[in-house]
Amino acid sequence: MTSVTRCVFGDLPGGGAVETFCLQSDFVKAEIISFGCIITRLETKDRDGNFSDIVLGFDDLKGYINKHPYFGAVVGRVANRIAKGKFTVDGQNYLLPINNGPNSLHGGLKGFDKVLWTPEVLENGVRFSYTSADGEEGYPGELRVWVTYTLSGSELSVHYKAQTSVTTPINVTNHSYFNLAGQGAENIYDHEISIDAEHYLPVDDTMIPTGEVATVQGTCFDLRKPVNLGNQMGKLQINGYDHNFCLSVTQKPQHCARVYHKPSGRVLSVCTTQPGVQFYTANFLDGSLKGKGGAVYPKHSALCLETQAWPDAVNKPQFPNTLLHPGEEYNQTTLFNFSLQ
Ligand code: GLA
Asked: Is 306 a catalytic residue?
């Protein structure tokens, strides 16, 4: 049984009430707000039966309105990067706001994470809808989007649906930052991870995929067997992980990643229909944000598993398609399952 309750979270400066929707089962308590469809709290049990909040975030709306690294948010219209903020569809050139080095990141200056969505309470969850106007943040076509969160026992499901009036690229994900020790814990070095991917996408120095689909074999990207993140990240030549791992495209959600935190016993398993997952070890956190309960969030204090389309796919015809045409429907599902070991 899942109970769903709603209450006020805060008021937007320009007007508009933001509500919190609390989804609760015997195993999981999730709080999601109508601003950015943000998961603000996610409590799961450790092996002694004690609940802890395992996602990073803020205590109040102000934290989420200010610039922040997409804590818990739904990201779109196109998550991750589009090179130089440029693409061409049907012979028409489009220009997006540049907000990350020379590139456009996570939907632009006011992406899906920064808008108020319309909620609808469901029996076991909440559905949010939003209409992104033609030309919003430079993207073509009016796009209607629905994000549905449902909780069933120990599984939180996120379903994304969209329809467009003009052909547009689309790539929607959730950008939760997990620390299975409980948010506020210093790092994720005591977490173990595995990702079921044989290939990953190498990137250039502006974080745009080079176009090569590289084998993980013999590299630090081979996470097919579980590795301890402390050991593994100590070996890296890079700052941490911030890479797309390539998955096979499926109709039904397929297992793609597992995270295990031995001290608490918590396990997070992720299944998805999406063709990729961006594994990001919070390399850009620097302890300067004031998080929930006064927590500070240093570098590597969380990890994200952003199930998504491949970055810059709109400019790379060899990558799985991200164009949505009028009359078609975009449908993607990601499942976050919480268990104990
Ligand atoms: C994604 C990107 C990262 C970073 C974060 C947000 O994970 O791949 O490079 O931009 O979002 O800070």
From this structure: yes
